[in-house]
């Protein structure tokens, strides 16, 4: 009796298995579920993304030209200053004494000029007297009234007076040059003394104060010197970013940019590229190392109208941004409107057909690698067309153009309105084959099914 029940149970089970086999529920190949999008015209904006710091467009670093102790400090960090405003003073003792010595020397030289002038007047009078005596003796000598010895004495006195006059003129000229030199020394000493008083060269905000009252600072006369403070014009701000050498040729002065600042996470600001560095900044252990990263500095100006209505931030400053804030910039290098498909729909000819789940892990990372491959236009690129009647896919080679985060321009290979397989990414890259039968589904159903698994 028990054997009969067992045989009946086995028969029912075999019947169920045969029915499931015939219905396709078990055995056979599993039909891959895919999502489909139609190729259509879209506006694609290609961007170059880089990170950097906010800084003022104009920033002046102030250092003292003389060394000494800071005796007055009239500003603090964050103060708004005007051009010509007194900022600080350095102890002027040594320079003050030098200036006084220069003034004393100038006055002494001035007295020497006056003395030389008087000597010139005296020499001029002596010369005129000797000249008159000489002329009279010439007439008397010609008339044989005086002896030759008396004539020679008068002539020698005349020549001596003439030489003395010339010497007095030269001494006066030298004294005048000496006076000019002393005057120059006074100006130099006065200029050095004035360097102990530091004024603001521009209008702006004290963005960084590096000294305290009583500090001893080193002047810039012979070396770099101590930086006293920085004065910045915070009405015009910019982001200084580092762009990789692979992307720098796509960036041009005047390109528009979208800027995200970490301190203002819920806002985006507009900017424009104002400057691109001519030389690179290499980051690496060695200059000739193959592992070094070569970047170029690019400056992007923040447009004032994009943050004029922003509330919060630096309330005591002309702009809401403080120097040094971190920012991410998306530079719009090119814009094109044309036939486009989702970027995950396009794959290269060397795609990996492995079905190892560990190799397929991290789809986001794999997709980033695939995007970089799509930039190489020498590599053949393909999409899968979806045949709604046969529910199969067809591999088609395409030629692509620029791309953004979502779409890529297709120049040739497909037509507008054709249905393109757009997901899942892992299936497009690793599972689908030309002519393979698939099941069309929606993204919601696809991802909900994946979630249940």
From TrEMBL:
**What InterPro entries does the entry give?**
Beta-barrel_YknX, MdtA-like_BSH, MdtA-like_HH, RND_pump_MFP, UPF0194_transport
Q: Which residues form the Multidrug resistance protein MdtA-like barrel-sandwich hybrid domain?
A: 60-218
Q: Which GO terms describe its cellular component?
A: cell envelope; membrane
Q: Where is the YknX-like beta-barrel domain?
A: 237-313
Localization? Cell envelope
| SUPFAM superfamilies hit by this protein | HlyD-like secretion proteins (SSF111369)
Q: Which residue intervals make up region (Disordered)?
A: 350-372
Which ranges carry the Multidrug resistance protein MdtA-like alpha-helical hairpin domain? 114-182
A single MF term (Gene Ontology): transmembrane transporter activity
Q: Which UniProt keywords apply?
A: Coiled coil
State the superkingdom.
Answer: Bacteria
Q: Which family does it belong to?
A: Belongs to the membrane fusion protein (MFP) (TC 8.A.1) family.
Q: NCBIfam families, per this entry? A: RND_mfp
Put simply, this protein is called HlyD family secretion protein
Recorded source organism is Pedobacter insulae
